[in-house]
Design brief:
This protein is an alpha+beta fold and 190 residues long. The protein has helices spanning 2-12, 18-23, 42-54, 64-70, 77-85, 131-135, 166-176, 179-187, and strands spanning 62-63, 89-91, 94-95, 101-102, 107-112, 115-121, 138-140. Mean pLDDT is 75; it is low at 1-37.
Amino acid sequence: MAAEHADDNTTGGTNGTDADVDAGTTTRPGTDQETAPQDLDPTVAAAVSAAEAAGPQGGESVRIDSWIWSVRLLKTRSMAATACRGGHVRVNGERVKPAYSVRVGDEVRVRQEGRERIVVVKRLIRKRVGAPVAVQCYVDNSPPPPPREAVAPIALRDRGAGRPTKRDRRELERLRGLEASRRSADHQKP
């Protein structure tokens, strides 16, 4: 029986001790290594390892506003903090304040510009990194962005051409599809 436990310890690797579980940390046995340097560009792999080295060690944590900014979900840290305060950031379904400590495995939802980004935290980092490295720090479960509406291009006039004539205005309205709505409005007048 002691031999069985010895085999379990040697094959189990470093899945985490009770102390790690109590502290809320997880070690990265083989799960993160699968996406690491083997299948990445060498420069990206070096940047990923540098970002991990600069990240939190042991039981340390990362603020949600800082993490959102570092993985490039929002442009500035102040925008990330404002989004948290405004209720646009949810972690595991709950609204959070900017100082909330994010952990590996958390689902983060960020609402911005009419679109919701849904990501699962894969790595904790503190410093802002390049886009190829940032993508390695989360799993993106966001729905695809809505298609851009087919909008007629805005008619540009030459500089110094002056005010459009009535004929020019009608041509512009016809291009924009406003002709029918304008006529119906004219017919409704008493």
